[in-house]
Amino acid sequence: MKLFEPLTDSVFYIMASLTEPRHGYAVMSLVEETTKGAFVIGPASLYTIIKKLLKEQFIVMHDESDSRRKVYVLTDVGRQTLEADIARRKVMIEMAEKGLERGSIG
Amino acid sequence: MNQTKYILSAGLAFSEAADMKKLRHESMQGWHLKRFRCAGYELEKGDNEDVIYSIDYRLLEPDEKDEYFGMFAIAGWTHVCTEYNMHVFKAGKGTVPIYSDAESARDKISRLAIPVRSVTIYTVVPTVLFGLLMNFTSGTIQTVSQFAFYIALIFAVPSVMTYLATIYHQLKK
Question: Which PANTHER family match (chain A) (predicted)?
Fold first, then answer.
C-alpha cells in the first residue's frame, strides 16, 4: 500500500484523529460523527493503517494499559506529514472554489 | 449433540468471495460456520440467519489479539473462527465492510501470499531436485528419485497455482 504522498483519505482521517491521543474505536467513531456517516473506516482497514503508521513512525503507542484499547498519538514526523498533506489538499480546494466563483460570475 | 456438516472450500486464493457467499447461503438455511476443517468448513445447524461473512489474513502476536478482535467487535463483526493467520467474521447485512479502502484491501492479499509463497518454495525445490536426479542417475537411485519426483509434483502443482492466483489478484486490484 502506498501510504504517503499523497495520503489516502482513510489515512488522512486517521492521522487527523490522532492529533490527540485516541484508541482505535475512538478514531472510528470520531470520523463517523464528523462526516455524519459519509465516510466510514472498516475495522480491518483501520487496523492495517494503524500498523503501517506505527511502522513509519508517524504515530506512537501512547498508552497500552488496556490491551483492547491501545492509545496512539501522532509523532512530530506524523504532524509534519499531515501538515504537508493539508497544504496539498488546500491547493485542490482553492483551485476548485475559485474556479466555481469565476464560473458563476461569468 | 449438535448436528454438523462439512463443505469444501473452493480455495481461498482462487475464490474467496465465492466461499463467503456460499457460507452466507448456508447460514440462511440454518447452517452456520463453526470452524475451518481440512480444506473446507464445518457448519453447525441452528436458526436461519441472514448474515454476511468476511475473512481477513493476519498473523497476530498474542498481545495484538485483544485489540484486533476488539476493533471488529465494536464495528459489528462477530469473530467466528481462526486458523493460523485466517480469521472469519460475520455481521448483519449492511454492516460497514471490514476493508473500506482499496489500498488496505490490496495489503490483505499480499499477507495471504506470504505463507503461500513459502509452501510453494518447499514443494517446487524438491520437485526440481528430484527431477534433475531422475535424469542424471540410473538404476535404483533413478527409480527412487522418479517416484519422489511425482510425489513432489503432486504437491507442487496446486501450490504453484495458488501462488499464481495470489499474484493475479494483487495485480488485478
Answer: PADR-FAMILY TRANSCRIPTIONAL REGULATOR
Give the nearest chain B residue to A70 (CA atoms): B67
Q: Does B90 touch chain A (CB under 8 A)?
A: no
pLDDT confidence of residue A105? 66
DSSP codes joined into one string, B123-135 = HHHHHHHHHHHHH
* Cα four-point dihedral sign B97, B98, B102, B105: negative
Query: How do the domains of chain B map onto residue ranges?
Result: 4-92, 102-172
Nearest to B98 among A1, A3, A42 (CB): A42
Which of A25, A49, A67 is closest, CB to CB, to B104? Answer: A49
Summarize pLDDT for B117-139 with one digit per residue, the tens: 888 888 999 999 999 988 888 88
Q: Vertex A53, ends A77 and B117: CA angle to 5°?
A: 135
Instruction: Judge: domain A9-105, CATH 3.40.50.620.
Output: no
Determine how many CB atoms are found less than 10 A away from the CB of residue A96: 10
Measured distance CA(A61)–CA(A69) in Å, rounded: 11
Query: Which of B67, B72, B112 has the most A C-beta neighbours within 10 Å, making it the best mutation to test the interface with A?
Result: B67
ipTM field:
0.86
Q: What angle do CA A4, A28, B170 make, to 5 degrees?
A: 45
Can you tell me the mean pLDDT for A24-37? 94
Give B-chain residues touching A14 at CB under 8 angstroms.
none
